[in-house]
Amino acid sequence: xxxxxxxxxxxxxxxxxxxxxxxxxxxxxxxxxxxxxxxxxxxxxxxxxxxxxxxxxxxxxxxxxxxxxxxxxxxxxxxxxxxxxxxxxxxxxxxxxxxxxxxxxxxxxxxxxxxxxxxxxxxxxxxxxxxxxxxxxxxxxxxxxxxxxxxxxxxxxxxxxxxxxxxxxxxxxxxxxxxxxxxxxxxxxxxxxxxxxxxxxxxxxxxxxxxxxxxxxxxxxxxxxxxxxxxxxxxxxxxxxxxxxxxxxxxxxxxxxxxxxxxxxxxxxxxxxxxxxxxxxxxxxxxxxxxxxxxxxxxxxxxxxxxxxxxxxxxxxxxxxxxxxxxxxxxxxxxxxxxxxxxxxxxxxxxxxxxxxxxxxxxxxxxxxxxxxxxxxxxxxxxxxxxxxxxxxxxxxxxxxxxxxxxxxxxxxxxxxxxxxxxxxxxxxxxxxxxxxxxxxxxxxxxxxxxxxxxxxxxx
Length: 460
What we know:
The protein is mainly α. It has 24 helices and 2 strands. Among the domains are: about 235-325, Serine Threonine Protein Phosphatase 5, Tetratricopeptide repeat, CATH 1.25.40.10; about 325-435, Tetratricopeptide repeat domain (Serine Threonine Protein Phosphatase 5, Tetratricopeptide repeat, Alpha Horseshoe). Helices cover about 65% and strands about 0% of the residues.
């Protein structure tokens, strides 16, 4: 009796049934047989196995190779996945088990390590970031009606990822995806209307699209809608609804929502005042490296808003924000070093952080570093630099002391001023300007007013 190969479609179905049972070995066997016969669905499913690490060592480069085989045969889902891989690219990190294994093996026998790598990863272990390929495959999937691919293609055009920005094309693809209920596309349309990108600026229309996406659970849209309620832009101002939408996004781990909800909770605006809850929200956002939240959390610990002052925690979070480049945090960390609060008193470290903040235009830091240079505290004595920093502070409206009175101020007097418990200083005198932070409702990295700028479309 002559044996004939089983039909590839049946093999795909048998593989799917095995996969549902988590019998990955059988799934690999069935899909590999179907893929060898040229079945695009089997190629796509093998790509998913490599991407998820089911039945194989997880490797996105191998996944991309199988996606490509399916994509070239017109498989829409494979085209979309291949687009996503090329959009962000993938490179094995040094801490992965494979990278550790290869590094150790290569030290002993480079040739054998390379041979084994070729056996284990015939397609390599990296996927190059390629925006042009991302657009090519994303648009191919979008033209077949894949809603996620349409939304992603709109994103590529809106951001100009693969070339010039084209808001007309972005809007076209967003509208096609939104017609299929894509929350990402609805968010994209909200951003276009909120900013007047390719359309006339229309905040009520933006709020409409944000609302549709927010109802579907899109966290970025929930934040944007909350900001519109907070500012009363496109919608009647309602801090209660703002807090409600921030809360929904915060529950999904959105750092900006956690930060904004914390500010409302601290103020008792639209929600019950609760310093402990606000502290928790700020800490959650700070752990995601949101700098305004990190700075605000440090202030809470320094001033004791939630509990009693904790200068060690304040220094920890000021440092995190300072190392991220925030000028106010750099100034505050320098102030703690100057006082020896939460950290050892180290005037050299204080000078370093005052210098960093001063270079970013922070006026109080400019006065401080000028005083340090004038007295040779933590830095070399340099009257020319002192005069220069006082001049830059004066340009921002801070009146520095007259040069004659500054020169007459002894180093010991300044040193005593720094050491004296509770000393606060004054930017308008020759003493160091190291006041405690004034709590204020401000924006950007120098405060914590909630910005009403719309958010960019998050990458999928």
